[in-house]
Give the backbone structure.
Amino acid sequence: MQRTSFDQMPCPVARSLEEVGEWWSILILRDAYYGLTRFDQFAQSLGIAPNMLTRRLKGLCEAGLLERRLYQERPPRHEYVLTDKGRDFRPVLWTLFAWGNRHLAPEGESVVLTDPETGDAIEPMVVDARTGRPLAKGVRVVAGPAATPGLRRRFEPKTAI
Amino acid sequence: MQRTSFDQMPCPVARSLEEVGEWWSILILRDAYYGLTRFDQFAQSLGIAPNMLTRRLKGLCEAGLLERRLYQERPPRHEYVLTDKGRDFRPVLWTLFAWGNRHLAPEGESVVLTDPETGDAIEPMVVDARTGRPLAKGVRVVAGPAATPGLRRRFEPKTAI
């Protein structure tokens, strides 16, 4: 497949996509959040070909989202554990989760996010951490301190996302 | 590339990934949020091969995230406009944006999300829309009303994401 390397782009969205690599990587992360750590567990959960799983796990380790650890010496066995950077990717999963349940579950929800204390269903919403203001009310996009001149020209005063 | 069709999976994350299709689709959506609507604008912004752009735009239209509209009759010219379903995908972009800026911008931020009223930088955070509780404090994942028996067995009382 023809594909530009997104990590040459200054956009943080493009870089995130480059870093995580492939759809499989996101499902591997999902399973890691669910508590899976071993190759066989991921393989069984995802129905993914072993060579593809090997490649994706390697990619996630190189990107610093997972860490490969020896958990048994004879014979050597490794497990894959989330790093802080990997755990920090959870908000992307929550929002994908919410969108999928809203738009792609015509038969009803198969999986639901709930509050661990009350058991009530949770509805993910993105707000500004500092003010609590929902981002749905409007977000302006502006060139940051490290922006190239080309990027500065790109954003008009009203560019939003 | 070997790839399972994720839309056979009941997980809303897997279905979302299937629906949006490819990394390029997310960058096309980003540009659509930024205000681009025409083929040439997307092509120039993304540096994407025309045949790939055609395919991705078609996919986003079929998935109902973009709508193809005639804006000029002679010669016929079309533009691509976000639908409600497409606009509703923005939270995924906000969280990718935040993660990318936090972990993948060692030279400093090139692009910043800001509050349109105050101009202050925004820090996206996911909360429960009903209680305002940050999801980072813990989210339980449980089988929903449409879950298959296999899926019900999968989630233990403590499965979280």
